[in-house]
Amino acid sequence: MYYVAYDNFLNPEQFGVIKQYLGPGGFFPWELSPRINHNDQNNQDMYFATMIYHSYENGWYPNIKPDPFQLITSKLYIEGLHRIKTNLYFPSKTGKVEKHAPHRDAIFRHQGALFFLTTCDAPTTMADGTEIESIENRLLLFDPTSNHSSSSPTDAPYRTTINFNYFGAGIKKEYLDFGMISPIPSVSFNAEKLDDFFHISEE
Fold first, then answer.
1. pLDDT-above-90 percentage for the chain
2. Neighbours of 55 (CB within 10 A)
3. What is the pLDDT of residues 18-64, one digit of tens each?
4. 3-state secondary structure at position 131
5. Pairing of strands 131-134, 120-125
6. In sequence order, what DSSP letters do the residues of 30-72 get, joined into one string?
């Protein structure tokens, strides 16, 4: 298990592009899902979940603009892209932050990245209990084969994230060294495992 979070991952202009596309008036094709997590059959809350890209479904989905998402993928070592999915969670109905049931994205070994578009009090909880705060323009690199949990906020009208599942490693060195505003991780655990999982092509 590992997780590494970087703040201010995109520059303000790039972040504005993707936030506008997924936000009000951006004409993004949000799809309503009847259940947040199939691991918790008692939770009947709905949320918006739109598949952006899937390697089993001929790549990019219709009516999706790839360019905003490529602002993120272009900065990661990706040898093979498996899935991109957007999530929008509604506020908690209880008045308290509601953590959702733990889940794994898949059982086969690969890498995960979660991009936060909303600053709110609803964290992502890792398998060891560490809570990664939801801060806009934060990128969390993590092991998606280990349990983790989303949550619903109390202090924002919604919580929006983008989930990337891919084969590769971490952030490209040239972007980490010369492109990022904040190249020092704000949260880090077993970061060395991130680049050990897969061979990085020199091409």
1. 83
2. 13
3. 999 999 999 999 999 886 766 666 666 789 999 999 999 889 999 99
4. strand
5. antiparallel
6. --EES-S-TT-TT----EEEEEEEEGGGTEEPTT--HHHHHHH
Q: CATH number, domain at 19?
A: 2.60.120.330
Question: pLDDT tens-digit profile of 101-152?
Answer: 899 998 898 999 999 999 999 999 999 999 999 999 999 999 999 999 999 9
CA distance 194 to 50: 27
Total count of domains within the chain: 1
32, part of any domain: no
pTM: 0.93
Q: Which residue has tokens 């998606």?
A: 144
Domain extent at residue 112: 3-26+51-186
Neighbours of 67 (CB within 10 A): 11
